[in-house]
Amino acid sequence: MRGVIQHTDSHGVGVLHPGSMGARVAEQAAGTGVPVWWVATGRSPESRERAEAAGLLAAESVDELAARCGIILSVCPPAAAVSVAESVAATSFSGIYVDANAISPEHAADVAASFYGRARVVDGGIVGGPPRKVGDARLYLSGADTEAVETVRALFAKTVLEPHVLPGPIGRASALKLAFASYNKISYLLAAQAFALASGHGVLDELLELAADKVPGTLLARPAQVTTAGPRAWRWAPEMEEIAAACAEVGVPGDVAALAATVFLRWADLKGAGDVTVEEIIRGLSSGD
What we know:
By secondary structure, the protein is an alpha/beta fold.
């Protein structure tokens, strides 16, 4: 880890903005002994609690963060990824910027373009949940600047967030992240639809018994896992839009992802909810047009 600190000119690592995922990623970086910073101004009490629990240091502005850090990680909702990058590009930052958001390869290229000639950009894709133990999540990295990619890989090499390098340009890590999410997250929606259909016809219990017998281990047989999609659907919806855009880039129909984005928004009022029930998931699907 000392090599990474020296490479970043003894500066720290910045994280924008530590939500449930970003705070855990930042915590892993902080555990290596590198000072990790975030921008506290204007953030919610919940964000402050997460940052304090992760051992993060508070900067007053993006300018201060840029001055203190040799690496900045962006872990934010997909819709904000480009604007967050532009806010950093507007500073004097000249280190390594890692976009670790669920965005399309085209938008990853837009992020890189905003730093042209000033900072070095690495494309990142986090697959899995917030990293707490080995096996929870992987961090895929790509980019033409192989030295910058290696620096980021080395930062997380001894943490539970497993770094994996994909040879090639900006966009490869994002593409892999979205390809996995297109199957994984839409599967939650398909299971929820099956629950809603069965419930509407009075055969939900029978469906769950059938699923447990014929497809054990799948989401259809694990309703408690499906309900965890409810509180996260507000940020899954824009991710589906990015998937639809990524599909269009390679001539693949993105209709399913675009529709999934609309349907996930029906669960938006479950944001932050705990112990969501199957009934609430079904009710959310049954509301709206």
